[in-house]
Design goal:
47% of the residues lie in helices and 17% in strands. By secondary structure, it is an alpha/beta fold. Strands 3-2-1-4-11-10-5-6-9-7-8 form an eleven-stranded mixed β-sheet, with helices on both faces. Helix 7 links the parallel strand 7 and strand 8. Helix 3 packs across helix 5 and helix 6 crosses helix 12. It is globular.
């Protein structure tokens, strides 16, 4: 398998990106194609033991920063590491593309300038794979489509369910709509209309879920519009960060709690490990005609390695063909 990695993606690039590529090449045995400024990438690789590893460099003279406008960068930086990596997927010279770079730019470049949409896809969706200490949940959309329509959410559900089945190994994933109440008929007009559509699909649609049910692992695929999904993800991340920060502050408040904290440290470490986003690494941009995994800009080497693992799972599960077939079947029901 050949995985193209944006070496200029993370906030601290190319250090974490290259280190993650080395970890992935060593653990998985795949060829990792590092895309970016050749001199900078080679200098970073020289800091690692790469003997016996399948690592290649493809030079890209331009890089897209987090402050770049996605629309402008998509047009003006045609030789960027993102354009180059996605074009490798388009031509079949790579099986997947992984980036920890500008999410909006990744969406625009994939959709408009390189891979384009899978046939019948109305709108691509950004997803997030999350773990609140229970089973893995994929949520979409989390920002690509702030204004959605019921038919968009219908396709998000199909694509999310197929990804959960073919990449995450969930044989009959439970699909739910994020809403302000579990009961049928609750939610906005968008949610109610989408629910009517999903109830007619050959999916394991379980109805509405509230945020608390999402965090309890009540669904495997959670569908929402990009505005609501983005707020949910950012609120969940901030809440988890706040809880760990408060816990750390209270443990340090006196000698007694500090002693207890030392004794409980292994349990705290395990709890953090269960919800640590770096253990997931990244999530797919669904609906474009190629595997694209997008990670967080703050990714460290472990997160980059795990984002590459997500790409491997998507490729091994033949997710793109599964989505193509699923949408054709839905567009042309028997």
């Amino acid at each position: 398998m050949r995985i193209a990695l944006d070496a200029m993606g993370s906030d601290a690039c190319p250090g974490p990106d290259v280190a993650g590529a080395v970890l992935a090449a060593r653990e998985y045995g795949d060829t990792i194609v590092l895309i970016g400024d050749r001199d900078r990438v080679q200098a970073e690789l020289a800091r690692h033991d790469t003997r016996g590893l399948n690592l290649e460099i493809v030079h890209a003279p331009e890089a897209i920063t987090m402050s770049d406008s996605p629309a402008i960068a998509g047009k003006s930086k045609r030789q960027s590491s993102m354009h180059t990596g996605m074009n490798l997927v388009k031509t079949g010279d790579a099986d997947a593309f992984v980036t920890a770079g500008n999410t909006g730019a990744a969406l625009v470049i994939a959709t408009v300038h390189t891979l384009h949409r899978i046939e019948h896809v109305k709108r691509p969706a950004l997803s997030s794979i999350i773990n609140f200490g229970y089973d893995t949940v994929i949520m979409l959309d989390i920002g690509a489509n702030a204004d959605s329509r019921p038919e968009f959410l219908e396709q998000f559900a199909i694509m999310g369910a197929l990804y959960a089945k073919h990449a995450l190994g969930q044989e009959n994933p439970r699909v739910a709509l994020l809403s302000n109440g579990e009961e049928a008929g609750k939610g906005s007009e968008l949610v109610r209309d989408a629910a009517a559509r999903l109830s007619k699909l050959p999916l394991n649609f379980i109805g509405n879920v509230e945020p608390k049910e999402v965090m309890r692992g009540a669904a495997d695929v959670v569908v929402t519009d990009g505005f609501t999904g983005n707020i949910f993800i950012k609120t969940a991340e901030a809440t988890l960060s706040m809880m760990f920060r408060l816990l750390r502050d209270e443990i340090k408040s006196n000698v007694l709690t500090m002693t207890g904290g030392v004794l409980a440290k292994p349990a705290f470490r395990r709890a953090f490990h269960r919800v640590d986003p770096a253990e997931i690494g990244g999530a797919p941009l669904l609906g474009v005609d190629g595997v694209v995994i997008v990670g967080h800009g703050s990714s460290d080497a472990r997160a980059v390695k795990n984002a590459i693992r997500q790409a491997r799972m998507a490729v091994s599960g033949n997710v793109i063909q599964a989505i193509r077939d699923g949408l054709i079947q839905t567009a042309n029901p028997v």
